[in-house]
Specification:
110 residues, alpha/beta, Transcription Regulator spoIIAA, five-stranded mixed β-sheet, 4 helices, 41% helix
Amino acid sequence: MIFDKEGNTTIVFQEKTSLAMFLKNLENAYPKLRHDHIVINLFSFEKLTANDVLEFLEISRKHKAANKSFVLVTDKVSFDDVHDEISLAPTIQEAKDIIEMEEIERDLEL
């Protein structure tokens, strides 16, 4: 698992692994990441479905409950096809934009 920390945001990705192993590794690494906003780069997965993205719902809920952003990045699944609680972006830059907007919303207590 590779971590790219930029300020208070950590981008997480891993090459050549199954989704199940990626999720297990993410759960194991979560204690080190829990204080940062998290961007999950899923570009290494050639095939990804809305159900695959749903596997991240529990950790997303936990992270957002701690007032931190959790954004998945993939262009293989449409935003319209995923659960409302999951933040999904087609690019890393758009994920960073989502985090910035969510920080503003938290600051304004919206």
